[in-house]
Amino acid sequence: LTVTMLSSIQRTKQSAMDKHLHWQWHGIDQVGVHDMVLLATVDEDAIVQNLRKRYMNSIMFTYIGPVLLSVNPFTQMPYFSEKQMDQYQGANQYENPPHIYALTDDMYRNMLIDSENHCVIISGESGSGKTVSAKYIMNYVAHISGGGPEVERIKQIILETNAVLEAFGNAKTIRNDNSSRFTRVVHQNLDERNFHIFYQLCAGCDDQLKRNLGITEPSYFNYLNQSGTCEIADVNDGQLYKVTMKAMEIVGIDNSTKIEILKIVSAILHIGNIKFKEVNNYADIEDPADLEYPAYLLNVDPDAIRKKLISRRMESKWGTENDVLDVKLNVDQAIYTRDALAKALYHRLFDHLVQLVNNALTFDANDCRKIGILDIYGFEIFEKNGFEQFCINFVNEKLQQVFIELTLKAEQEEYKHEGVQWIPVDYFNNKIVCDLIEANKPPGIFSILNDVCAQTHGQSGGDDHFLQKMNSSVGNHQHYRRASGRFLIVHYAGNVEYDVEGFCEKNRDTLFDDLIQLMQSSGNELVLSLFPEKVPKKCVKTRTTTFGSKIRKQANELLTSLMGSVPHYIRCIKPNEQKRPFTFDDARVKHQVKYLGLKENIRVRRAGFAYRRPYDKFVKRYAILIDDLQNNSPRNDIAKTKTILKSINFDTDDAFCMGQTKIFIKNPETVFQLEEKREEKYAHFAKIIQRAWRRCRMNKKTNDMAQRASDILYGHKQRRRASINRKFFGDYIGLDQKPELKILVGKREKIWFADSVCKYDRRFKACSRYLLLTSKAVLIVQHIHGKTKRHSNQSDYVVKRHVELEKIVSVMLSPNQDDFILLTVLNEHATLVECVFKTEFLMKLCKCYQDRTGKTMPIKFSEIFEYTVKKSNWPSCQTKFVKFEIDAQCLNKAHLKSHGNTLHVAVGAGLKNTTRPNAKPIAPITPQTGSYSTQCSSTSVHNSNQSDCFSPASVGSAGYGSVKQVNSYRRKAPPLPHAHSQQPSNSRTELKAQLERITNNSISKANGAPKNKPPIPPKPRPKLRMLYSYEGQDDDELCFHSNDIIEIIQEGMTDIYLAHTRMYILLAGGRGICEASMVCFQRIMEREFKSVLQFPLKISMNFIPHDEIVQRFSNNMLKSKESSAEKSAYFTKDQLHHSTLIASTQHSLNKALNSSTTVSTSPRLAGVMEFRRRIIV
Fold it and tell me: Would you say 124 is a known binding-site residue?
């Protein structure tokens, strides 16, 4: 059975074991020797004792190098689950205990690596576990191979094919309850059964189907009651019938076709019940009623069946004319004709099922490689061995020849051809036995049998004539023995004595034209398709193809196919004849060890090499271990191979041997170390690719989000310059530091947006709230501080409003650049909030709303909001108004003024409502091809996702009238990575390590003598003294003391100092490195204080545009009442990338080492600006 699996990318194996011990397997106590190449004494007794010791400890698998031995346990073992599949996937062969999964994984990976077809040959005698081994192989390949829905469908068909082929192709024998058989329909020996499908049909189909098919108990049918056995212990035929029907459905056989197949199966059983009687020395039907059901099921005329079974149409030629005669048959001939019809029906039906399976497994043979799994009937020795055992044992003899040719003989010949020193190992070559059976010159047994069948034409005495001719032709052969009425052949597996009775009859395999014409008269389409051949009208004398010729031809074609693939071997051993679990018959096993040639195999493997590859394939696979191997090494593959091996310090004498065309490696652990180093290289390059891909994906995602958000406001609302190209982060309050908020929402509910907003009540009083958006609702949450708690157990957060998305009627915004949003809710009061990140909130709200309801979120734009608030004692106060207007004097800051039930919002003109965001291209990444570290990617990948972060602008406060402006409170920027962004954060240990490296590098550079003329020392820089102390209000704020000295590197001419660069912080107790996204200084009113410094830091790989920075800070700076007293300066655009800040504050360093959060100034400052910063390794 050839199983074709589409190739998939093998997953990368993660190894945590020591490189020198990685190949060794641990975890279970080693019993015996897991690889018998390591046996101290190599003989049959030592092999048997090692197998016994492992078998009695529930270990059924053992290695001989790459060959796997499997001892049938006759019970289900516990190590065939998905856990074991995952354990062996991607692992080296000796990394885990011997297992069929290890062999399969090695075969599958090599198929992908070398793009070659592979096959596994499962050999052993009947009942040794070959079919079960084939199942495990197919299950494992289906488990580890990838693919889309179509590939999954094919894999499912392959797995379900087992049930179909077993039902129609396997039967119970004396030695095996599930033996692969052929020519079994019409006869069974004592204590055997016919094919499983007959008994499954009798036990499993429903009553209605039984009546339609005429099915009763198995004992009613002659083809099922010959052996006296209709059941198998611990086997439920009725349940297996359901499994077979389900498998046929998965394979693609519809219900109508299944019924037609079951009709033919039933018809075969009814044909076997047709009996004959002798009338005037000729045969006749004993009971015409026996013809009714076969005729009904096959849809043919009963009289036609009767005529074809008791007579034969023959043509004779007299001169130039042909005469057609109906020759009557005797009883024996009629029985032979009946059985021939039954066998032909079943044989062609089975071929049709195989064709249906092959049609279901449609694939492009040019685009995929194949794994062939050969599960064939095993070697058999019964008390009475006939033609069936002769054919089976011949095929096993051919498979043994393949094993010898490709392992013992070919391997030794290869060493000699390659010039490798080698001591020959003697072995038995069974080619002489194969020639005895199949040779043409001199004629073998099959040729002699075909000649006798052609001469006798069904006459009696053919078997005796065959025996006489065989004794005279091959009687003196060393592997042939004469006997009375029998002959004996010395097979590789032992001496088998065959009874010649029935050899000629079974070999003819003749189906007369009369029976073909009978089936072609059927009204059943399936029956017609089984007999497509054309019957010649004229008499054409040709020698018919015998069954022996067919089996010989098919065996040779099979071997040709196997020789074209890379073979793998599983040698199955049957421990006892009683099929009892954990019963070990030493003599029986020793006999199998001897004829399987295991001793010779061990001797060859001990003296040979575990791994061999042509130089070109070796270089192709391991060239990645040497940087720039193609350019810096000679073109000779042998020299490149030596370069690769020397790069990992392998000893030439012990580790490998160089042949003429191949490299031979002695020990498998050497190959495993090569593989591990190769995987490390691939992992390094994979991280580079991942980093670039993630950056590209995040950039595309950011651009798409900005585009979708812009589409919502396009043509309706003016845009702020600082927000048009802003990145979206979703979390602006640091949810990881607020677990209680997640508890309020629900642990499994994802928070798409979280921000601090201003919520306006019925009196237009602003209060600070958290705005949370989930997949189901919008939440307004209040943060309760310690003094306002009613009791100590009260939560820090209270949900003030919970609005389900389905209840939102509309969202209203003004056409101006303000941040006001009005949520109107069905049958409830509306909510007015001011959200700086309104564009992101709207985009995500629309998406969640559409996902939840399947509708588009209604968004309205109006210069006047009219909405209803909570009920109060004054009904006239329930309706409120918000009016928006443009005031050039307000610039970007909203000025609020309330009057009665109306709130007036004035804001400066923003960008046009048709402004679109600019898509930001991805900066190219230069790949690292030199030396590398296994830890090189963690920080880089993190940086790529954090590079777009920036400090959100806060709205300035300039309220007037009775309305209190609340946007003067501190607005936090996007926090460090949280639950929704899974980048790793840098640890304090890593920080200290890099600080140490920086210090050492600086010292080493300082100790070296200068090569060039040193520059003139710069003039002293201005210094600022901090007038106030500040204790951080939150855990993410930096504290500083009064009288801390700040040294300014460069000073300009305006209000702001800006820098966007890598900066060093030199402190009293140490030195650190960090990435600064912004550094801001502000001088305000010298008569109050000289200067105050604020310098939050964070990782940034992409620079924020200069115009955006200036716009953001200009929006947040407080206009001084004494503008004439202001003295300030700002950096130029070029200086944004080259400024450096030096600060001498020991307290700041200690805080930086223990924190990676926000830094801000004292709340006493008139203008508050805040930024994100992050310390990197």
Answer: yes
Tokens 């992992």 correspond to 683
Residues making up the chain, counted from first to last: 1177
Q: CA angle at residue 819 from 817 to 825, to 5 degrees?
A: 125
CA distance readout (Å), 653 to 614, 656, 666: 19, 6, 10
Question: Would the annotation count 316 as a binding residue?
Answer: no
CATH code for the structural domain at 699-924: 2.30.29.30
Residues 648, 662: Cα–Cα separation, whole Å: 19
Domain ranges of the chain: 387-509+544-564, 611-666, 699-924, 988-1003+1021-1153
Judge whether 976 and 1156 are in contact, CB under 8 Å.
Answer: yes
Q: 611-666 with 699-924: one CATH topology?
A: no
| Count of CA atoms in the C-beta half-sphere (13 A) of 437 | 26
Give dist(CA 884, CA 793) in Å, integer: 43
Q: Is 128 annotated as a binding residue?
A: yes
8 assigned ligand-binding residue: no
Catalytic residue set:
126-127, 131, 176, 179-180, 378, 380
Instruction: Determine the number of helices (DSSP H) and then strands (DSSP E) in the chain.
Output: 34, 38
- For 177-329, where are the alpha helices, taking DSSP H only? 196-204, 207-213, 237-251, 255-271, 292-298, 302-310
- Give 888's DSSP letter: G
The strand pairing partners of 63, in sequence order, are 35, 68
Topology of the domain comprising 387-509+544-564: Methane Monooxygenase Hydroxylase; Chain G, domain 1 (1.20.58)
pLDDT digits (tens, 9 = 90+) for 965-1024: 333 333 344 444 333 333 333 444 444 454 454 445 444 444 444 455 556 566 666 666
Task: List the end-to-end C-alpha distance of the chain, in Å, as a whole number.
Answer: 58
Distances (CA, A) of 624 to 128, 619, 643, 1121: 44, 9, 12, 69
Quick check: 1097 and 1076 in contact, CB under 8 A? yes
Q: Is domain 611-666 in CATH 3.30.70.1590, yes or no? A: yes
The number of C-alpha atoms within 13 Å of 865 and in the hemisphere containing its C-beta is 30
pLDDT digits (tens, 9 = 90+) for 673-725: 888 888 888 889 899 999 999 998 888 888 888 888 888 999 999 988 888 88
CA distance 375 to 364: 24
User: For residues 825 and 808, what is the distance between their CA atoms, to the nearest angstrom?
Assistant: 5
